[in-house]
Amino acid sequence: MSLDPALRSRIETLLQSNRVVLFMKGAPEAPQCGFSAKAVGVLNALLPDGYAHVNVLADADIREGIKQYGNWPTIPQLYIDGELVGGSDIVEQMAGSGELHTALGLPPPDRRPPEFTITPEALDMLRSAIDNAGGGYAVQIDIDARHNVRLQLAPIDANAVAIEIEGVRLQTDALQVRRADGISIDWVDDERGRGLAVTHPLAAPPVRTLSPHEADARVRAGALRLVDVRPADERSLAASPVAFDTLDGGIEALQGLPKDTPLAFLCHHGGRSQQAAEHFRGLGFREVYNVVGGIDAWADFDAAIPKY
What we know:
Distance between the termini: 62 Å
Largest sheet: 5 strands, parallel
Radius of gyration: 24 Å
Helix content: 25-40%
Number of strands: 18
Number of helices: 11
Shape: flat
Structural class: alpha/beta
């Protein structure tokens, strides 16, 4: 089926008016599929001042029309200078090789190996993991824009920036390599648990615990915002005696707060509030707490609150 001339004209106007256009699901600040999120991650790193994008979920004609226009069956699709580059996998590959930098007229990526520290105990553990995987693997270091770090085994990537330490290959994407500077990797077996402990000096501090007594005092002093993540029907059974926010209307208002706002999260026992606290820590909030024991623990502190 041929592309409708009016729709073709719309697409060509978009491409002629913008040097870089990403047809995606969602928007760069809120991609609505994993493949769009991958493409956005690359472009956000290379083009921090922004780029044109089209949410195909909001325009069914464009969603189907762009597939016909470029003879490319999937979304996202990146266009530069009116030419189709490809989908998320191709975008990532070109970013790793430096081809995308060239296409965008940017300097080549900084491929100096990252500078970080790793303890002998952590090296031993990672070496064993690679050996058990049967060879051909490296330790992949992934760091998001907020300097949260994740380590995992991955196939050796010839395009990655890599460093080998005593037989252990550690690699990262060229777009992330400078974020890896300053990482510390250790192996711990103590009160924190047993496993790798990875820290980054620029990452938000971990979620901390707060007792109901401490939360009560800090909220009354105006030094803390309390967020009850339970739905309204649960709050009707038992609620905090101090002022609190809820998530009834969504999380957008809280997400827009200054990142140095102290936040404490509360639920029934502490599980859901821990998840919410981790989410806001991931957004870059630097002082985040979970109220230990939830509203039931608060009831133990304040006899006026019923337990349920």
